[in-house]
Amino acid sequence: MEDTIVAISTAIGKSAISIVRVSGPDAIQIVSGIYRGVDLLNAPGNTINYGHIYDGKEMLDEVLVSVFRTPKSYTGEDVVEINCHGGIFVTHKVLELLIRKGCRPAEPGEFTKRAFLNGRIDLTQAESVMDIIEAKTASSHKLATFGLRGDVRKMIEDFRNEILSMILKIEVNIDYPEYEDEEQITTEYLKPVISELIRKLKIILEKSETSAILKDGISTAIIGRPNVGKSSLLNSLLKEDKAIVTDIAGTTRDLVEGQVDIGGVILNLIDTAGVRRTEDIVEKIGVEKAKMTIEKSDLVILVFDFSEPLNEVDEELLKMTADKTRIIVVNKRDLEQKLDLEAFEDYLLLSTFDEGDIEKLKAKIKEIYKLSDLSDLDYTYIGNARQIAKLKQALKALEDADESISMGQPVDISNIDLHHAFDYLGEILGEKHVSIVDELFANFCLGK
Ligand SMILES: Nc1nc2c(ncn2[C@@H]2O[C@H](COP(=O)(O)OP(=O)(O)OP(=O)(O)O)[C@@H](O)[C@H]2O)c(=O)[nH]1
Ligand SMILES: [Mg+2]
After folding, report:
1. Which of 11, 45, 86, 188 sits in a 20 to 30 Å window from 160, CA-based?
2. pTM (2 decimals)?
3. Which atom of ligand 1 is nearest to the CA of 353?
C-alpha cells in the first residue's frame, strides 16, 4: 500500500469535535507539514499532541493530533487523527488541505480494508465492525462484539483444523503408501468422522441462523382483506399513528413500514394494501405488492375480521400463506361474531384497541422465534448472511464427501470434497478469493 489516504471519520454536521483520519506511509510527514506544535516527526506512537493546523500563513484550527505508528494502529500503517473543532467548514478545509499536500481521499471502508489486508483483523472481524455500527438492539450489538473479539474466527478455525487433519491423514496415505507406521485411512474409518463433522456443522448453522435473526430482525408482513384493521395493528404495535386508519375499505394503497423491538429483536413490519378482487388499477398494484411482500417476508401476520364471515379472498390468503411462518389474527373481538373460527387451526382473537391483546401478540412472536431464550444464547455464532452462505456450502461439500463414501468411491474422491469444505470455511475468514474483499468494504461508511 503505497499511498496515504484521508477521510473525515465522524458524521458530517455541527458537533463538538470532528476527526480527520490519515493512514499510510506518509501520514505523519504530510500532517507535520501543516501542523505547528511539537515535532510530530519524532512524536512517539500512541500520543496525543496539541497544536494548530496552518494553510500557509493562515491558521485554520486549534487541534489535538493523535499519532499511531506502524504496526500498532487500526490499519497497521502509520495513522494520524486530527481532532478538529466540529464545524463543517473547518473540517472540510483541513481535508482539502491534506489532499492538496498529497493524501488521496479514502474509499468507503478503506481504513478497515487496510486493517484486513495488513493482517490486523480477519474478515469476520472486519464484518463485525460494520455490524457494530449498524446494530439496533442490545443483542445484535453483543453478537457483533463477539465477532470483533475474534471468537467467531476461533470457532471456524477449530472446525477447519479438524477437516485439515483429516485431509493430511488421507494425503500421507496416498503419497506414502509404503509408510507402515501411518494409520491406514479407509472409507470405513472416514465415514463416522465425516458424519460427526456434518453433525457439528449443522449445529453451528442452526445457531447461526438464530443469530442472523438477532442481527437483521424478522421481516413481518401484515396481510388481510381491506378494512380488517391491518394498519390499526401496525400502529398499535409501533405505539404511533404511522399508517392512516379509516373505516373506508382500501385506505392503505402502498406499503407502510415500521420497526419495533420485541425482546431484543427488531420486527421489521410492513403494512400492506387490503387484498380483494378489484378493477381499480392503483389498488391492483397494491395487491400485487402484498403478494410479493408475503414471498419476501419471514413472518406473515394474517388478519381477519371477527365481525365478517369468511369469503373467497380469505380462503385464498390462507392458501397463499400456508407454507409461511404465520400468525392468524382475528381482529375486532369487541364486535358481534360473524366469523366461523372453525376455519383456523390456531388463531389469536384480539382487538387492536386493547394493549393487553397487543402484548399477547408480541408474546406469540417471541414464542415462535424462541426469543425468551435469547438471554442464554451463545453469542459465538455468526449472524452474517455471507458467512452463513459459506457455511452452507461447506456443509454441502461434507455431505458430498459422505455420499461418495456411501457409493463406494475411493478415499481420494472424498478428499476433494474435504478440500472444498476447507476452502469455503477459509472464505469466511477471507483467506481465499480476495475479490469479495472490495465488495465487502465498499459497504462501509467513509472514514471507517
Ligand atoms: N371495533 C373495532 N374496530 C377496529 C378494530 N381495529 C380496527 N378497527 C377499525 O377498523 C377500520 C379499518 O381499520 P384499518 O386499520 O384502516 O384497516 P386496514 O386493514 O388497514 O384497511 P385497508 O388499509 O383499507 O386495507 C377502522 O375504522 C378502525 O378503527 C378493533 O379492534 N375493533
Ligand atoms: Mg390499512
Report:
1. 188
2. 0.62
3. 31
The CATH number of 138-213+384-429 is 1.20.120.430
Interval between CA 333 and ligand 2 midpoint (Å) = 18
Domain regions of the chain by residue span: 5-122, 138-213+384-429, 217-374
Cis, bond preceding 71 (omega within 30 deg of 0): yes
Q: Are 218 and 369 in contact (CB under 8 A)?
A: yes
CA of residue 298 to ligand 1 center, whole Å = 24
- DSSP H/E element including 303: strand 299-305
Ion ligand 2 residue ranges (Cβ < 5 Å): 230-231, 251-252
Domain 217-374 has CATH 3.40.50.300: yes
Name the closest-CA residue to atom 24, ligand 1.
250
Is CATH 3.30.1360.120 the right assignment for the domain spanning 5-122?
A: yes
CB 327 within 8 A of CB 348: yes
Cell numbers representing residue 430 in the block:
477471507
- Using the 8-state DSSP alphabet, how is residue 225 labeled? S
Q: Which ligand is nearest to the CA of 223?
A: 1
Q: What confidence tier does 174 reach under pLDDT thresholds 50, 70, 90?
A: confident
Q: What is the pLDDT of residues 254-290, one digit of tens each?
A: 888 999 988 778 899 999 888 877 666 655 666 677 7
310-365 residue pLDDT tens: 988 888 889 889 989 999 999 999 999 999 999 898 999 999 999 999 999 999 99
